[in-house]
Specification:
Blueprint lengths: L23 E9 L5 H8 L3 E6 L2 H10 L1 H5 L3 E5 L1 E3 L3 E8 L10 H9 L4 E10 H8 L1 E7 L5 H6 L10 E5 L5 H13 L4 E6 L41 H18 L8 H9 L7 E6 L1
Parallel strand pairs: 1-2, 1-7, 2-3, 4-6, 7-8
Antiparallel strand pairs: 5-6, 8-10, 9-10
Helix pairs in contact: 7-8
């Protein structure tokens, strides 16, 4: 049984050919926040080489068994680390009910506790995005789903010369001022086109035929998957201001029926959900 390959930031410890720090590798995807491996499975099915990163050792062990053949052939590298904007030791707040809610951000852990989920704390080692890129190359697509650290990690692309062609991460739903900061950060990194994707609707997505990214495949997306990526993401590409306008009704719905809802009555929230005011959660996809 192969073990997950863990990034070693000491270059002297491993013989390897250094990747080009500028050129995008069109065959490479980074899955930051691998969780149960749904997204990794899709990217592999599409024919890409994947570097999948997760802080949870149990999730990494399960993925090592599931993807043993892909690891053995070098198509998949699993990195059992938290992804952060700094290396070193961090506290991982492991969610007992929803491992996809694992986070290294204390504020997010407190929200999860308020929502009634159990949490255990564990010390883990962190790796930075520039370090991952230095080890494995510049990915064509960078998926980030790391519960509260998304923008800080994406912002660390400023420290390197290369940029992934496509990036996605979960945007804030609480502060419109913070949302503007997200788009200012992305614009400064050179991203100019955006899509706003309802993640709760991902199970209704279907890979197009013929493919616009990787191989033409059939694939059924589980609830919680990130779904299609790159030029296969549904909907038109938007400017910054168009994307911000698309988020205004999303923020309204979240304020009414989200995690800390203005509407306190469960019955009334259920009615609002049935008529289209479901909060949901949304990823922003960006293209250089």
């Amino acid at each position: 049984m192969s073990n997950p390959e863990v990034v070693n930031t000491d270059d002297s410890a491993r013989e390897h050919v250094a990747p080009d720090p500028v050129a995008v590798d069109p065959s490479l995807i980074f899955d930051l926040g691998m969780h149960l491996g749904q997204d990794t499975a899709f990217y592999l099915h599409k024919g890409f080489r994947v570097v999948a990163v997760d802080a949870d050792p149990d999730l990494c062990a399960a993925a090592t068994q599931r993807f043993a053949a892909e690891i053995d052939t070098g198509r998949l590298t699993i990195v059992n680390r938290a992804v952060s904007d700094r290396a070193g030791s961090l506290t991982l707040y492991r969610n007992l009910q929803y491992p996809e809610w694992n986070t290294v951000v204390a504020k997010w852990a407190e929200r999860n506790r308020r929502l009634g989920t159990g949490i255990i704390e564990q010390e883990v080692e962190a790796v930075t995005l520039p370090s991952l890129i230095g080890e494995h190359g510049v990915p064509y697509y960078l998926k980030v789903d790391i519960e509260g650290m998304d923008l800080r990690v994406v912002g660390s692309l400023e420290a390197i010369t290369g940029r992934p062609t496509h990036v996605s991460f979960e945007s804030t739903k609480v502060s419109f001022a913070d949302l503007r900061i997200e788009f200012e950060t992305l614009s400064a990194l050179g991203y100019a086109a955006f899509k706003v994707v309802a993640q709760q609707l991902v199970p209704t997505q279907h890979p197009p035929r013929p493919a616009r990214e990787g191989r033409t495949v059939d694939f059924d997306f589980d609830f919680g998957s990130s779904g299609l990526f790159g030029d296969e993401v549904p909907g038109p590409w938007l400017s910054v201001e168009e994307a911000l306008e698309a988020y205004r009704p999303i923020f309204l719905r979240y304020s009414l029926t989200g995690d800390d809802p203005f509407v306190r009555s469960r019955l009334l929230r259920a009615v609002l959900n049935r008529v289209g005011f479901r909060a949901g959660w949304y990823d922003t996809h960006e293209r250089a």
